[in-house]
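Q: what does this look like with 2-acetamido-2-deoxy-beta-D-glucopyranose bound?
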Amino acid sequence: MYSFALITVSAVFLLLGGRGADGSAGFIKSPLSEVRLTGESVELHCEAIGHPIPEIQWWFEADYNDSFSQLWDGAREDRVQMNTTYVLHATSTLYLFNLSPEDLGTYECRASNDPDRNHLTKIPRIKWIRSQANVVVIDHPLIVTSHSNATGGDLLTCNLTDFALVISGHQWLKGAKVIHEDKDSSQITTHNITGVNAETSGQYTCKFLTSPEVYAVINITVAPHVVAYKKTEHGNEGDTGVLTCKSNSFPHVEEWMWSMVSADGNKPIVNGSEDRYYIKSTGNKTELRIHQLEIEKDQGEYICNGSNEHGNEGAIISLHVRSRLAALWPFLGIVAEVLILVTVIFIYEKRRKPDDVPEGNTTFVTLL
Ligand SMILES: *[C@@H]1O[C@H](CO)[C@@H](O)[C@H](O)[C@H]1NC(C)=O
Ligand SMILES: *[C@@H]1O[C@H](CO)[C@@H](O)[C@H](O)[C@H]1NC(C)=O
Ligand SMILES: *[C@@H]1O[C@H](CO)[C@@H](O)[C@H](O)[C@H]1NC(C)=O
Ligand SMILES: *[C@@H]1O[C@H](CO)[C@@H](O)[C@H](O)[C@H]1NC(C)=O
Ligand SMILES: *[C@@H]1O[C@H](CO)[C@@H](O)[C@H](O)[C@H]1NC(C)=O
Ligand SMILES: *[C@@H]1O[C@H](CO)[C@@H](O)[C@H](O)[C@H]1NC(C)=O
Ligand SMILES: *[C@@H]1O[C@H](CO)[C@@H](O)[C@H](O)[C@H]1NC(C)=O
Ligand SMILES: *[C@@H]1O[C@H](CO)[C@@H](O)[C@H](O)[C@H]1NC(C)=O
Ligand SMILES: *[C@@H]1O[C@H](CO)[C@@H](O)[C@H](O)[C@H]1NC(C)=O
């Protein structure tokens, strides 16, 4: 198919190349008819060669109107756009955005390089050549979706109620990922999930491989599934402590709340309070930063609580605050060790006779 098109194109080139001096305009690419859904976009493409390079124009004939009218860049409240280039040959792409039923009709690509082509009175010697394509705009057909409890799993069903479309297969997507594909031509397609939970929650799209493709979305929704990034966090006195919780279920968390567990109930933490507590949240993550950590005040358990329309869930994180000194202990330990070693060496050296020194040195090096 493709190679055939290529051969045709090169044949046209040869033909025109052979014609030499004549150089009248000829199409090497013609616009193709398209079916689109209301609200979608379409591109029509046209290419012409000739000497000099021909001019390309686009014309439109509505189904309800027998006369062609010329289209320009920005027509129909900017829903029509054109991109035309004249380098070596003429190429033009017509874009129709946000299609509506009024866009339905015949689109014509016209090309000509006759010097008199746009003359108001003179009739051009060589007429405009034309190439047509139809654009059909249809409404998105109704797809009836359902979600039912079946034994051993939940069944998602899509039923395409339009019998005019030719179905060459189906796809199921979770989010943007294709999770199932088939080449069935049935009006109904199903997908089986293992119950409704945080893992199966998400946006499922059933897509009918028709021309154009039609689809429906089924939302599997749950309350947030909140987990602590780390169940235990450590911080040093005076430093900043960072506690993080996540939720990867669907839909996203609408509101995150942090609180600290204390003997007299949970104390909510207000963002920006005391100039120490800072909360940063997105739909799937929340982060609590505590500046200038103090042992007595900040050590303890914290709860992050995420909620959406389906409910809420919390996760607990323990924060351990080490004293500055504690942070130093390992370092002090090493220093002490080195000091003791140096002292031992020093004393040892002192007690040795001078002629023993070289041999002794090597021993100490290996020791260190
Ligand atoms: C048909 O198109 C012409 C040219 O754009 C316009 O003047 C005329 O009003 C249209 N007729 C109808 C019935 O839309
Ligand atoms: C117009 O065509 C040129 C060259 O093909 C391309 O670089 C540019 O992005 C096109 N503009 C639009 C709006 O598509
Ligand atoms: C499926 O069945 C379970 C109990 O067996 C019930 O809790 C759940 O709400 C049902 N889900 C739907 C979508 O009917
Ligand atoms: C759904 O899948 C489960 C196991 O994955 C299976 O036991 C069950 O029969 C399936 N249900 C339907 C309706 O296909
Ligand atoms: C699918 O939709 C058609 C048309 O509305 C209806 O006749 C048919 O019963 C539906 N099938 C199922 C399995 O729901
Ligand atoms: C599915 O969820 C998305 C995002 O929350 C929402 O925009 C859409 O309206 C929902 N669709 C249905 C059918 O509930
Ligand atoms: C907390 O306050 C900071 C500014 O002080 C702001 O950038 C941030 O978005 C706030 N967080 C929340 C969850 O409102
Ligand atoms: C969390 O949400 C942001 C945007 O809200 C997104 O870029 C990111 O990929 C999400 N992360 C996960 C793990 O879903
Ligand atoms: C989360 O906060 C809500 C109030 O908004 C509360 O009812 C619920 O018990 C909290 N959940 C946890 C696990 O703390």
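Helices lie at 2-19, 75-78, 295-298, 324-351, 357-367. The longest helix spans residues 324-351.
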